[in-house]
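Re: that chain you flagged

S.,

Sorry for the slow reply, it's been a week of failed gels. I finally had a moment to sit down with the sequence you sent. For the record, here it is as I used it:
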Amino acid sequence: MSTDSLLVPLSRLDHGYLELLSVVSGYVVRSVDVSALQAAAIRVVDKWRLLAGRVVWSKKHSAWCVLVPLKGDVSSRLKFTVTRLTTRLDSSFVVNDSLSAQVLPRPPIKYFTHPSVPNAISSRSSSKSPIISIHVTQFSNCACIGINFPHGVLDAFGLGQFISALDHELHARPWEAPSLPEPGNNILQEALDELEALPSLYDDIHLESTTYAGLRRELAKFSLINGLAVQRSVLSENFWGQVEDKTVYLNGKTLGKLLREVKDEVKRIDSELRVSTSNILVAWLLKAMYSEEVSDTKPVSLSSAVSLRHTLEKKYPAMKDYSHNAIMFCSSPSLTKQQLAEKSVAELAIFNHQALQPSADEAWIQAYNRYLQRGLKGPMSFGRGLGRNDDPWMFTNQTIGRIDQIDFGSKMHAMFGFLTPLEPNHVISLNKFRDGYMIQGNARRSRWMSVIEAVEKLQPATLRAHL
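Prediction finished late last night. Pasting the structure tokens below so you have them in one place:
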């Protein structure tokens, strides 16, 4: 490889279903200086050379890689587009400051990304497309800003690194770009390979009854047939279930009250237990979603995307700033809708907390990796639409990326996320926003109506007029 470039392999966790998707992080702001934003983004790409790279397939590594230019002008390695409209963005898409809790519809993705941006890594590779694309839609009353990147290259943490760098450049503050790895090296892949070579760190009996059962349910081998099954399942649910994309916003006061009430009940159940904000919000949302489906016998399955950085950085310090996908999926036992109705939010939060505990050690990471390698024997896809008779949910806590921590120079009205070209059903993301939280995802219209009723109990004002 030339000294003018560096080949950075992606790990096996970047391959499979994720390599088909792009992520768009969208912001609605009062106004934005387009020229200043573009110049700041180019400076980020110039300083953090990984983002100036392009995705290529390496026969040597049998993997997708990022070919990073170490020298030269890289201004063309950022795609920046602008659409100017004379119309106003509807007020239903922005947070109403007079409400302490509300449900917002999600604006169309066309306001946040340009249609010429490819989605799959293979398409980005063949077209030599930039990793980062920014699209601005200027309305007469606000602006929408979208940051588009391939999910097979970055996760929420990697996006957060870019957002932080962009914020620093916008406000002329110094920052350090994440270090580039040694040529041909991927620290996560190295860690996974070393764990694979160790004797088993887990108990086979315990693993068979919990971890593997969840993995077999949620993950399938990445193949054309399984991909088409997932697509068919999503499209069927979208049509028959009248699926809608919405976002719940709870401000700091409302969120604080909910957290105190639930944590007090958790203490009464078990004084030694501690549940997180994420545990509580997942529990609250699920209980609200199914409050009108108590008699339905269809089971509900929960999975969460869990970051490996904290666990692995103890032995591999470079994992602390690892930008690519460092997530695995942790699944809990299925619950019936009657069980969801019977359990309190505190009990469901405990249930969610306990399901995530195995992911906090190397034994779980080793078991997960071995399932991918020995069970699936290759990249993974979601096991949806493969003869299942349950409602599968996937939760992702994106607060690790702190993607809300950016000042575009004016008030931020709202924040949204998108997966494109096809967003799986029942994928819920959690993000901080202002002093509260945003809970975003897609679900049946009837379930969102149940959530609206739950939100109304948190916020006395009637919300239906704002939806």
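What I noticed first: The first strand starts at residue 5 and ends at 9.

Talk soon,
D.
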